[in-house]
Write a structure and sequence with these properties.
With 415 residues, the protein is mainly β. The chain has 5 helices and 27 strands. Residues 3-22 and 376-391 have low confidence and may be disordered. Residues 129-262 form the Right handed beta helix domain.
């Protein structure tokens, strides 16, 4: 059965180019680098030709560059066992990489896919590709990242995704292991299925200025990962237990906008170091959105929560009930209302109905201000001296009045 499958894939891979106008001999030339005397294959299209990369058996080739073409196909086993230091696919209308196309390709310094209008990676396209210094995907659009498309890619120093749009990412669309640095920058992930982005044994994972539309349970799965950072990202929704991990040292979301933070969104995380949630804006949140973080098991967790803004309505009424879990009252003290950070949530109070349900939040009444005169008196009379002076003043006035009356009576008698 396995042999039949492999034979079928081989036939499909090698015959898929029959509908194309060109092959290697029409588009590609083998050149020699004058600096290194190494051979490299350069495929530069003049008029957006479509072509299939035939199997390459010249093992002296160290670089392959395919640029400026229409539809390009990389069939089954076409680059197998080549000792390549650089592979680049750039400025293509469409790039299709079929299963096992790069099998047993190792020791690549740079594998770069850039400026591709439609990227079509079939299952297991990169199986056997390992020991890569840089894997770069830049300015690429894919309607669907198929299951196991970027799977079995192992031992990469830097995996970079930048300025890309992925309309749908299926299960294990990105299944990467032994990654030192993973960075996704300014990239849109629309519909993400379960386990669509799974990283195993990675040091630093950073998402910066990314947009995530729909997530599901375990859309982000981190196994033996040290640190995960989301910076300046936009989440349409973070589904319940969207993040899964075994112990992480750092999980951080900062300067991000979250439209809908579902109940127990962080329930799949296992943390042992820092949970950082600062300077974020959240439109809709629920009573149990954060309860997995404010639990006794995380009493030793270094929690960095500050300066987040919420829609100040009854959707955040649950913050007042966190006192038993949030011992330091962190959420109330460090949360603000959307629109201005001059109004912390603590300035509001819930208004309850007869059934003890929250109807609305309203600002607390401001403390009454003293008049200027009263404030002056309060300032001047800081001790009993003020009162003694008043008493003495009244005594002298009474004595003067008595003397005046007495003198008047004496004058009348003498007359």
């Amino acid at each position: 059965m396995n042999l039949l499958l492999l034979f079928t894939m081989f036939v499909l891979g090698t015959t898929s180019g029959l509908d194309y106008n060109y092959d290697n001999f029409n588009v590609c030339v083998t050149l020699t680098d004058p600096n290194t005397d190494e051979s490299f294959l350069e495929c530069m299209c003049e008029d957006r030709e479509n072509f299939t990369v035939d199997s390459i058996i010249d093992f002296s080739i160290t670089r392959i560059i395919i640029k400026g073409c229409g539809d390009v196909r990389i069939p089954f086993a076409s680059l197998t066992n080549l000792q390549l230091s650089e592979i680049e696919f750039a400025d293509l209308n469409r790039l299709t990489i079929l299963p096992f196309a790069l099998s047993a390709v190792q020791g690549v310094s740079v594998l770069k896919i850039s400026d591709v209008a439609e990227l079509n990676i079939i299952q297991h396209a990169f199986v056997g590709l390992y020991n890569i210094e840089q894997f770069i995907i830049r300015n690429v659009t894919a309607s669907t990242v198929m299951k196991d498309a970027f799977s079995a890619i192992s031992t990469v120093n830097q995996f970079l995704i930048e300025d890309c749009i992925f309309q749908k990412v299926q299960q294990f669309g990105f299944l990467l292991q032994n990654i030192t640095h993973f960075n996704a920058i300014n990239t849109e992930f629309h519909a993400m299925e379960n386990y669509s982005l799974t990283l195993h044994n990675a040091k630093n994972v950073v998402f910066e200025s990314c947009v995530f539309h729909e997530t599901q349970n375990a859309s982000f799965t981190f196994s033996f990962v040290d640190s995960v950072y989301y910076k300046n990202c936009h989440f349409w929704e973070i589904e319940t237990t969207a993040f899964h991990s075994n112990p992480l040292n750092v999980f951080s979301i900062t300067d991000s906008y979250i439209e809908n933070l579902k109940p127990d969104a962080f329930g799949g995380l296992e943390l042992q170091g820092f949970f950082v949630f600062t300077d974020n804006t959240i439109d809709i949140t629920y009573e149990t959105s954060f309860t997995s973080i404010f639990t006794p098991q995380y009493s030793e967790l270094d929690l960095k929560y500050c300066c987040n803004t919420f829609t100040c309505d009854c959707n955040i009424f649950w913050m007042w009930s966190l006192k038993d879990l949030d011992k330091n009252n962190t959420m109330l003290e460090e949360s603000y209302c959307i629109g201005t950070k001059l109004k912390p949530v603590t300035l509001y109070k819930p208004i309850m109905d007869s059934q003890n349900n929250c109807m609305t939040l309203e600002l607390k009444s401001p403390a009454k201000k003293q008049s200027v005169e009263a404030k002056k008196i309060t300032t001047d009379c800081r001790n009993n001296d003020c009162l003694l002076n008043d008493v003495e003043s009244v005594g002298w006035r009474n004595m003067l009045a008595f003397r005046t009356v007495l003198c008047t009576l004496i004058i009348i008698i003498l007359l």
